[in-house]
Amino acid sequence: DGQITAGHIELEHIWFRYGEGPFILKDISMNIPPGATAAIVGPTGSGKSSLMNLLMRFYLPTEGVIRIDGQPLERFSDRELRSKMTWVLQDPFIFVGDILFNIRLGDDIGEAEAVQAARLVQADSFIRALPEGYHTPLGERGATLSAGQRQLLSFARAMARQPVILILDEATAHVDSETESAIQQALRTMRKGRTTVMIAHRLSTVVDADIIYVLHQGAIVEQGTHESL
Ligand code: ATP
Ligand code: MG
């Protein structure tokens, strides 16, 4: 089985449709070097999430090849993919359990690693301010977190796994400006040293990207840096 070490992502002439439906992705090619940040932008329904589904191997392309570190995606075990490539969802799911459980999610992650990940993304201060800190119960009958806090918690969850590749669906929820700047700072920290593919909604995120891909009706209509576009 293949191993993901550098995080070089290549898509070669990807075509995709759900079942017998219309083509949702049309001849998509991308080359994202190790450690680079790629931003995917485009209107609703343009195929951004579908593209992420293919990267995560939740669906297989109808045509074309996706490679990581030079090897086709099918060469990797589920375990390898799920441990080296982490997807941060737009609206992260909170499980019934305490904060620590929500960071570790039953994976082989120590308490110290979980706390360290929370510190890295600046989630530590709000967690410590909760009645029972890292042991505060969440979910039904537990504490309720704000949208921004849920986002930071999901960042800690992602970082605790130390992924080589980070797939991010940037949240669109409105948060206060203090939380917003914590999120932006956390995003910068998280991207450092790992390949990042993000569905970007904020101009600030787009500006920070090394490569921007503009999707429209399933095709890349523009690509380049923020200066060149
Ligand atoms: P948004 O900005 O609203 O999240 P998006 O760019 O992520 O949009 P996708 O969710 O990838 O767009 O959807 C692209 C197209 O694929 C849409 O026409 C959508 O209706 C269709 N689609 C998405 N998921 C499925 C599915 N599971 N089965 C069938 N069609 C789907
Ligand atoms: Mg989407």
Characterise this structure.
The structure is a single chain. This protein has helices spanning 48-55, 78-84, 99-104, 111-120, 124-128, 147-160, 177-191, 203-208; strands at 9-16, 25-32, 37-41, 63-68, 71-72, 85-88, 97-98, 137-138, 165-169, 195-199, 211-216, 219-224. The longest helix is centred in the last third of the chain and has 15 residues, at 177-191. 31% of the residues lie in helices and 26% in strands. The chain has 229 residues and is of the alpha/beta class. Strands 6-9-10-3-11-12 form a 6-stranded mixed sheet, sandwiched between helices. The chain is globular and about 50 Å long. The protein has a single domain, classed as P-loop containing nucleotide triphosphate hydrolases (Rossmann fold, 3-Layer(aba) Sandwich), CATH 3.40.50.300. The mean pLDDT is 93. Strand 11 (211-216) and strand 12 form a beta hairpin.
Bound small molecules, which ones? adenosine-5'-triphosphate, magnesium ion
CATH topology: Rossmann fold
Return Rg in Å: 18 Å
What number is the mean pLDDT?
A: 93
Biggest sheet architecture: 6 strands, mixed
Which stretches are low in confidence, meaning pLDDT under 50 for 5 or more residues running? none
Give the overall silhouette: globular
Subcellular location: Cell membrane
Keywords: ATP-binding, Cell membrane, Hydrolase, Membrane, Nucleotide-binding, Transmembrane, Transmembrane helix, Transport
Organism: Sulfobacillus acidophilus (strain ATCC 700253 / DSM 10332 / NAL)
Protein name: Xenobiotic-transporting ATPase
